[in-house]
Amino acid sequence: MSDATIRDPERPDDDNPELTREELQGARPAAEVLPELIGENATAELFERSKRIRENREWDELRAYGQARMEALGLGSMTDDEVEAYVDRAIHEYRQEQREKERAGKGADIPPQ
Question: DSSP character for 29?
């Protein structure tokens, strides 16, 4: 064994102690603190970049789900253009069904867009 000490995983660094309850209660949201530290423009850019990353991650998850569904239906060999057309058609048909339900007074599952 080496001479290195095994550190408590809850307190990995003496220079960065665990926050106390009082310190946590005084914490402010990043959107409030960052403009003071890095400026308004940099903060806006940071939040916009974060938003794009989240949206891309959500799109990737939806796309993977859609591809798995298509493979289960035997449609896995479609090109990207065919996939896009298939999805657009499915969304259009779903929204049309929702509008028809709404007109019939049955209530749509989601509000029409």
Answer: -
Token code pair at residue 58: 């959500």
| Residue ranges in the chain assigned as alpha helix (H) | 21-25, 30-38, 40-72, 80-103
- Spell out the long-range contacts of 14-22 with Cβ–Cβ below 8 A and sequence spacing 24 or more: none
**In angstroms, what CA-CA distances link 33 with 7, 36, 38, 63?**
31, 6, 9, 36
The pTM of the whole model exceeds 0.90: no
- Where does the pLDDT of residue 103 fall: very low under 50, low under 70, confident under 90, or very high at 90 and above? confident
Q: How far is CA 9 from CA 2, 12, 14, 55, in A?
A: 18, 5, 12, 33
Residue position matching structure tokens 């891309």: 56
The pair of three-digit structure tokens given for residue 48, joined into one six-digit string: 């916009």
Residue 109 CA, chain-centre distance (Å), reads: 23
23 SS3 class:
helix
